[in-house]
């Protein structure tokens, strides 16, 4: 009897394992009748559609079947224009469904349903479409490494709350996705359901968290055949008006332009911007930058954020280079001064073409042209002025070839090229990348080789190579990697790199729980080790051991602790800002402790504290981050963040005198306050507030001279004032309205100022008073973008 029972249990386990291990298949059918996207699912076409059901938990208790009172049923049909999705999401208590109204591409505290589509079924890139219970749309292009929510497609959806749960109806035009040119289609597909109050996520085809690769675990959609897709041609004209004024001047500006999207075929798309306008993009977070490197800025321009995953291969593309800071400084005589130096270069136009062939070859092409830019120089004796080119007419170009194979592997070639007209700097970078994974996605081998060429008055070439091996599945995982970067490797004309001329190794090992225990929902411990050695001197430039523990409790509170230790002294080859020089950096210990309260509460808070102690007298850093949020109701929320850092007896380069390079010992404080507010009038209309005040100072109290061996000796004779006091203020209040599919109107009031002196003021109220008494710039703007589908216009006329 016992033997029979054990056999039955074993058989059940075996059947369950086989069920979970194979891909589910959903068959769809063609329809000829029209479907109205109203969330009611009343059309006859839905009655005979096959049902996708039997969802299983993705997180936290991976593999657990969904409860019967939360069962989920999904149907898919199609015609020549689009695929249509209907989802019935049962809930025994519909009044408890979370449904915060957010801005587009923001989850908030809400239930949601999503569909993952991989038209090539190659296990490497999904088009993902989400609809929240409040009717808010989110969409992204997903790879194993990154979900790009800056990508926005044009699609339709509607949700309805019922007495049995809620219903989603979606229409996803073929223009929003990519698939091969074949009479018979087989797509990778999966459905996801998030039940926010339980903090549980379910999927149709099981996503096994023991396997590191998520995208390979989609199910299959079959039945799409002989579709005749319409012409994919879309025009997005825009018009905008700006009124800008400060204490000295006021002006009005009208702008107009056009974006074009054209589907070359079902797999390839051309995007073009003519006369671009980025006046309403989010402001850059200005900081007091005392580092030897430029500040890396976020990209907020839609053309350079949407659908650029191919161009991001190999990290050779930093899009802020296009239309960014001029590449040269003017030649100025002793009796001249610069009276006008533009901080950015105007973008004239840009195009990008991207897609993938039936055999998995991804092809990307991006080209942008920026305008010739001048600085104005004034002769202080004659009072005459002249102009000098600081950035010529420039062309930026990227070509990418990315071959995917075996559902989880790829080989990529990428080339970036910058050509500036005249006797200015040109550059070219090529990279060969590979990412190879075993059939079961247990192990990964990836690496690259990149070669750069820079043409200036002194030409130089360089290269970088890396190899990485990783175990990517199971409770215990590990990674080992090595890299070499030559001295003259330089990708900074169209990319961004800080450190060169070194070689190094890195390793880590981690342990995680894959299902909840009696204490934790999730738990992970990660141990890392890194070593970097400068090529020319053989000195260590970076060396650390780091332990990180992350966990979430059964009440879904999040905890994190990390401890980093540098066991040996290192040398900084960049802070001296002089070729061949370096400065000693003492050993240090850095710790971080963070906590996040369950986001389902109306009031939630993130708290983090950090502490760093150097093996040097009185030298330490400490900081605190506090981020409380309160959700008043499903429409209105406020979020405040305080980020404070103090650096005591910090050391950095400040100048040069007869003794050589001068360093200062200084005390620094950095304070950033941000306030974000949202009032959603509807799921397509909202008021948004974004306020930032930043203050930082550097107070130098002792000076040193850098010696040839990298150590500092006192320099009591240096008496120049190198102190810094920096204030930055930004205020954005906007009203946005998606008045039609793909069409948006934005009203924006912007107020900003920046003040910088060498007189340190440590009183916060005085700094606030100074920034508000400075020359504040006020901008009011209105912008309207309208989406025009060529097929709709053609049918009307």
Automatic annotation (TrEMBL):
Q: Which domain of life is it from?
A: Bacteria
Chain ranges of the DUF5916 domain: 229-797
Gene3D superfamilies in the cross-refs: 2.60.40.1190
InterPro entries in alphabetical order: Carb-bd_dom_fam9 (IPR010502), DUF5916 (IPR045670)
| Domain Carbohydrate-binding per the UniProt entry, residue ranges | 37-194
Under Pfam families, the record lists: CBM9_1, DUF5916
What name does the UniProt record give this protein?
Answer: Carbohydrate family 9 binding domain-like
